[in-house]
Write a structure and sequence with these properties.
Elements lengths: L4 H14 L11 H10 L3 H9 L6 E6 L8 E9 L2 E12 L2 E11 L8 E3 L1
Parallel strand pairs: 2-5
Antiparallel strand pairs: 1-2, 2-3, 3-4
Length: about 120
Amino acid sequence: MPATKKEVEFFLKEFRAGWPKTGYTVIDREKNDDALGILGITPDHRQNIILSLTYKDYVAGPENDKDGSSGEVWKFTKKVRSYQIYIKLKIFKVKDKTYAKCMSFHPDLSNKLEGGSYV
C-alpha cells in the first residue's frame, strides 16, 4: 500500500534532519558515481536535487532494507535534464539519533518509474 502524502512529507522532513550538513552520505557505487558524469552535475548539485524532493516525487516505500539492517527505505524519481533519475533514500536511528543516506542516485534505465522534475 502506498504511503500517504502526510507520511511522505514526514519521511522527507526526518530525512533532511538526519542528512549531515557536511560529508553527506551517498553510497559509493559505480552507477551512482557515473550518474554525475552522465548528467553533467556536481556532488553538490546532486545533494540539492535530493534535498529538493517532495511528495510528488514519491514512488514507493517504506520498505525494509534488503540487507536486513534497521531503518526505512523509500524510493523517488526526479527528472534531471532529459533523464528520469531513480533515487533511493534511507533513514535509520542509532541511540535515538536519526541518520540519512542516499543509497541510489542514477538514471532509471527501466523507464518504469514516474515522478517529479528538476530543472
